[in-house]
Structures are given as structure tokens and as C-alpha cells.
Amino acid sequence: MEIQEGLGFKELIVDTVEEFIELIRPDKKNVKEYLESANDQYIYRGQADSSWELTPSLYRNISRKEILSDTYDGICFMHWVHLKNFVRGCDLNSSIVPFDSFEFRSEWLEDFDDRVVRDSTKWPDSKLYELIAYAQHYGVHTEFLDWTKNPLIACYFAASQVIKMKKLDGFMSIWIFDTEKKNLLNEYNEKIFEIIEVPKSINQNISSQQGCFTLVRQKIMRGARLTFDEGVSKYEQIQNLNELVAEKKINSLIKVSVPCKWAIDILKYCDAYTVNAATVFRGISGGAIYVQEGLEIMEYKKLISAK
Question: Is 276 in contact with 44 (CB distance < 8 Å)?
């Protein structure tokens, strides 16, 4: 195993699927020594490419043509408009949205929160969390970052993405965050970092995925112009979790990377513990994804054999 230092994290690079499983298996928690953790309270995030940053979808899938100005409050306003349109779309097909009421809509969806213009850390207000989480799980880009309490679910997402992308080379990764150190990332009078758990009864995917979210509030000066970095597909001024960890100098984040060629073996291991598309995604859609992934795995096997 090779250990490298990244910005705010250690990266553990392994060559074999056996080494990888030993590090991430939930019964052993062998990453404890690298995080110097006391109670092994971790959350996990799987990504198909080890070079990808911990960037929420709102900041990596943003269309600059949608933003009224190249400021942070411009991004927040754009996201607020997307949330309003999501609720409008749900109304049109009689779908329930969480935390819904006449009072909620009057207070939060009639007018944009103008506090954000003066203080970027005011976005988003906690009263919007349930709506944001719900919208995210149906494909709306948000400033929330998905995590899970189950390392095998993180492995499933990383490996299934590798196979869907037909990614034969390079590395996939599992990010691991020590939640007991979350308060060390905040200041005594200001909450910059949060781990968000929303009620799961109306959002069953979060329940089956043992999901939660992280939020890094942005401290961007009023009127500051944002510059987009094409190399990493995000605005340079937007602070990701690992950058916040580096700023605070807290040992709370590691990344375990393994060659993509082991994706099928990792999915087999997950399936042995009943972690697959049919259990991660609820209902008939989960069954359909399960069938489709079976076909994608067969195609990936052919590509690996031919390599």
C-alpha cells in the first residue's frame, strides 16, 4: 500500500481488491489508525475517479449562462429558482414535497432570502434542507454532497459508476470522514460545516442508502467576482470539504483508492452482503436498474478480457 498526502486528506492507494476490502470492510474499521479516531463514527462517499474532488453537484454542473451575475449570491439565486421550479413541477403532477405548507411557501418560495447578498453563510437556511435533499435525490443539482453510513454502499456507487462509464484504467476511490471531528471544523460562533440528516419517510432512497449529506457554507466577500476553473469544473472561490479540513488542520478525512479493473469483484463483494441496485434503489426502478447493471457488467467483463 502506498500513502500519499493530499490537500486536507491522506490517500491510501492499494493494488489488489483484497487490500481494498480489508481497509473498508465495516466489521474491522481498519482505517482507524490513519484517522486516529476514538469511536469509529464514519461516513463514506464512493467516486468512480480518484481525481474527482469533493465538489457538490451545484458547483460542478453549473451553467454560467443561467447566473445573473458572477457572484456567489448569483449562484444561490439560481439554485433558489431551481427549487421553485421543482416544487412547481411536483404540483403539476400532484407529487408530494416535504415540509410543504402555505406558510412554508409564503416564507421561503415567494422571495429570495436577501440576507444572502450581505452574508454568504446565510445560504441555505435550514428550513430548506428537506426540500433540497428531496430535490437532489431526483436529479436537481444542489450544494449538498451525498454520503452514506455504510461503506459497502459507497463501494457499490463507485464500482457501478466505473462499469457504467466503461472505465478500464485509473483508480476509483472511497472517501471516509470521521464525524466525531465535525465540530472542529466550525468556529465558536459560526457553523461552517454540517452533517445533515433529514427525515426519511418521504425519501425512501435516503433510507435504503443509509444516506446523509454534508454542507460547507461559503465565506465569500460581498460582491467578490467568481472565476471558473475549467480544469476541475468549479469556481475557484468555492471551498470543498477537504479544503476546509486543510485550513483547520484536522486529521478527519482519508481517501482509499483501488484500480478500476477490480470494479466487478467489488460489486460481487457488495452483493454478498445484499448491497446491490435492487436494495439501494427502492421499488420497481431498483429492479429495472438491477437488470440494466447486469447487462453492463457483462459488457465490462468483455472489455476487461480484451484489454
Answer: no
Give the cell for residue 207: 433510507
Rounded Cα–Cα distance for residues 264 and 272 (Å): 12
Whether the ω angle into residue 124 lies within 30 degrees of 0, i.e. cis, is yes
Domain boundaries in the chain?
2-306
Query: Taking the complete model, does pTM exceed 0.85, yes or no?
Result: yes
Q: What 3-state DSSP class applies to 192?
A: coil
Tens-of-pLDDT digits for all 307 residues of the chain?
899 999 999 999 999 999 999 999 888 778 888 998 888 899 999 999 999 999 999 888 766 666 667 889 988 998 999 999 999 999 999 988 888 899 999 999 999 998 998 999 999 999 999 999 999 988 899 999 999 999 999 999 999 999 999 999 999 999 999 999 999 999 877 899 999 998 877 777 788 899 999 999 999 988 888 888 777 777 889 999 999 999 999 999 999 999 999 999 999 999 999 999 999 998 888 899 999 999 999 999 999 888 7
Calpha distance 43→134 (Å, rounded): 20
- 3-state secondary structure at position 97: coil
Q: Would you state the torsion angle of the CA atoms of residues 137, 138, 141, 142, taken in this order, to the nearest 10 degrees?
A: -40
Summarize the chain as % helix, strand, coil (round to 5). 45, 15, 40
- The residue among 130, 266, 277 whose CA lies nearest residue 208 is 277
| Numbers of helices and strands, H then E, in the chain | 13, 10
Q: What cell was used for 224?
A: 467578490
Q: Given CA atoms 42, 45, 51, 55 in this order, what sign does their dihedral have?
A: negative
CA-to-CA distance for 254 and 67, rounded, in angstroms? Answer: 34
Coil vs helix vs strand at 74 = helix
